[in-house]
User: Which sequence fits this backbone?
């Protein structure tokens, strides 16, 4: 941080103390406390867990219809898409797959069997539309809870720098061994130093490309909320509400306007933060599908959240690094390089994530709550 800006943050302590960082209104992370408590409808109880799934930019683009008994139908909220960085809604579909996986796990934990029908009215191409993404019919049956269900409240997306502790082959093997196979999605992990070095460079290159592609960068910044009060008012998107971030925002060092302006402290520090994240990657995990159908994308999303839960089980941090896999023009060189590195025999890389050991425990991402995502409520 530039010295003058650091002094402004320190000098803003009085302002920070006077304005406070405490949010007003509801706790943006309340959904993580006793999910489903008090719910009598097993569908609502399971959905209270499902909405905790990782999803692109934490957009939570889900509209759930419960109008048919014993049935859960998911639609897309088209106001919560990422048209620049996710022009074909591939990543949004991955998020729906993660949500579906947690939904079926939560139903199973309550002894409910789930019959899943993907895209019952047809696969929407090239973009998602008003047709349902999936329909789940539930019935009472003897089921065994997935052991990873117990890790849902521990699951995090940790974007911070990781410690210098290496991820050894046995830890990588444990991570993969904890994942139930999802047909169509092939999970891989590498701890090979030479490959990790190449991937560190490529993932940061993708981040740098996005930062210098104005439309793509603006899309992310528009969905970023800074300071405890702003995050409380917007329990979705990218949340920067630690006390330090709140203080930086209070004194005007960290604002959306400055985040999009190259050369400012906010812009430069954002890139430094990403570089530190890339440089401290200790392993990489990726998911490949042979084709790129909507069903493939759902499968990859299901496989990813299982990997994220498995990482939590073994004390590993995980952070999806998606910029280089996105389908806009300026990313194509990185996209092609990643596919040459990780899928030389063909196929589509659907997910790429860095892995390491966390420096500290972090809070979960905010959630809008179940009522905000139910149709007609």
Assistant:
């Amino acid at each position: 941080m530039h010295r003058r800006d650091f002094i402004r943050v320190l000098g803003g302590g009085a302002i920070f103390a006077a304005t406070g960082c405490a949010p007003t209104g509801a706790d943006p992370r309340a959904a993580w406390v006793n999910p489903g408590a008090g719910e009598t409808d097993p569908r609502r109880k399971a959905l209270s867990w499902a909405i905790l799934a990782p999803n692109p930019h934490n957009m939570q683009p889900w509209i759930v219809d419960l109008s048919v008994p014993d049935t859960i139908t998911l639609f897309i909220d088209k106001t919560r898409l990422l048209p620049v960085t996710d022009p074909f809604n591939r990543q949004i579909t991955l998020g729906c797959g993660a949500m579906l996986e947690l939904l079926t796990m939560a139903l199973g934990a309550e002894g409910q069997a789930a019959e899943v029908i993907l895209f019952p009215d047809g696969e929407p191409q090239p973009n998602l539309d008003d047709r349902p993404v999936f329909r789940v019919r539930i019935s009472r049956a003897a089921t065994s809870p997935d052991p990873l269900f117990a890790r849902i409240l521990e699951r995090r997306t940790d974007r911070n720098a990781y410690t210098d502790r290496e991820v050894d082959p046995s830890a990588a093997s444990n991570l993969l061994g904890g994942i139930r196979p999802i047909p169509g999605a092939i999970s891989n992990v590498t701890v090979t130093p030479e490959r990790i070095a190449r991937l560190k460079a490529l993932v940061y290159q993708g981040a740098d490309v996005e930062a210098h592609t104005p439309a793509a960068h603006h899309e992310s910044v528009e969905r970023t909320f800074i300071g405890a009060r702003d995050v409380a008012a917007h329990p979705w998107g990218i949340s920067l509400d630690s006390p330090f971030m709140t203080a930086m925002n209070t004194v005007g060092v960290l604002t959306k306007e400055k985040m999009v302006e190259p050369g400012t402290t906010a812009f430069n520090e954002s890139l430094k933060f990403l570089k530190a994240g890339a440089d401290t990657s200790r392993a990489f995990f990726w998911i490949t599908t042979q084709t790129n159908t909507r069903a493939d994308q759902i499968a990859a999303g299901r496989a990813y959240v299982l990997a994220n839960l498995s990482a939590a089980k073994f004390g590993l941090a995980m952070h999806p690094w998606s910029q280089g896999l996105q389908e806009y023009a300026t990313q194509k060189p990185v996209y092609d390089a990643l596919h040459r590195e990780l899928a030389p025999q063909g196929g589509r890389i659907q997910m790429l994530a860095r892995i390491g050991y966390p420096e500290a425990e972090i809070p979960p991402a905010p959630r809008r709550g179940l009522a905000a995502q139910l149709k007609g409520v």
In short: The chain has a mean pLDDT of 92. The first helix runs from residue 3 to 11.
